[in-house]
Every structure is written in C-alpha cells, then in structure tokens.
Amino acid sequence: MTIASQLTLCAVVMSTSLMAFAEADPMKAFPPAEEGYQRIVIKLPSVKNPDLYRVQLIPGKVIDADCNTRGLRGEIDEETVKGWGYNYWKVEKVGPGPATMMACPAGTSSRKFVPVYSDDDLIRYNAKLPVVVYVPNDVELRYKIWRAPEQAKIGTVE
Questions:
Q1: Which class is 31-147 in CATH?
Q2: Taking the mean position of all CA atoms in its chain, how far away is CA 53?
Q3: Can you give the residue ranges of every domain in the chain?
Q4: Which residues contact 26 (CB under 8 A, 6 or more apart)?
Q5: Which long-range contacts (CB under 8 A, 24 or more apart) does 80-87 make?
Q6: pLDDT digit string, tens, across residues 41-75
Q7: Count of CB atoms situated within 10 Å of the CB of 133
Q8: What whole-number distance in Å separates Cα of residue 74 and Cα of residue 15?
Q9: How many CB atoms within 10 Å of residue 82?
Q10: pTM exceeding the 0.85 threshold for the entire prediction
C-alpha cells in the first residue's frame, strides 16, 4: 500500500469517525452559549421533500404594550462551526423598532409578544441536524415552518 493510499484511507476513517461522533450527539459540535446568551435548539421533523420547506426564526420579547403596532430591530447572523461545517444562528443588537403612534384608550395595555423584524429570518430546512440559535437571555425565540407548493407557478408577460 502506498503512502498516498494510506493517507487517503486514514482521512476516510477519520471523517467517518467524526460523522459517527456527530450523529451520536450533534450538539457536541456546537459551542456553549456565551455569557448573557442562551442556546435554543429546534429539532425538525423529517419531511418527504425538504426543499419545499423553510424555517422562519422569530426572536422577540414579551412586553407590556398598548394598542399600537410594535416591532423590534435586530440582526440574525448565520455562522459556521469551525471544523464541522454546521450552521447556527446568533441574534444580536435587539432594540426598539418601529411603532405606530395611535392614542390608545386607558387600560388597554397587555402583555404581548413583539417580534424582531429581520430580512434574514428564513433558513433552509434540514431535519438531519438541529437548528441551533443563540439569543440574548431577555429574548424569546419562536419559529414557523413554511411549505411551498410542489408545482411552481408560471408568470405571464404583459
């Protein structure tokens, strides 16, 4: 056996071992939450055609709010675990966002979930790995699963 084939065999064995290790507990690959953050893990169910699905990440806060429509601003950054290639997301810079300025009747305040509006909230659906999201301790994470129809529609030329 040549040195090149021995190195190839060694690389295959190592990558197979790493994959088996990750399959046993894929969370071992992900870093622990930094101070001031919590790690949220979403385990997606298997689906027939995952290309038709997307996961919408909806971080936000439950606050006392009146009748005005509110939102928060923030960033959802995608990062990769070094050496593993697994993606995870980190919610940062959550702060006040847009709100309407209507005069609300007295006593109409209640506890409401106010979402962070972001352009980066739809992610690929992959049931083989958990969706791992790091959010500040004072932020709650909700999510929706979206499904597209099997057949794409054809646009018309006008």
A1: mainly beta
A2: 14
A3: 1-28, 31-147
A4: 86, 129, 130
A5: 81/29, 81/30, 81/31, 84/18, 84/22, 84/29, 86/22, 86/26, 86/29, 86/30, 86/129, 86/132, 87/123
A6: 999 999 999 999 999 999 999 988 888 888 899 99
A7: 23
A8: 37
A9: 9
A10: no
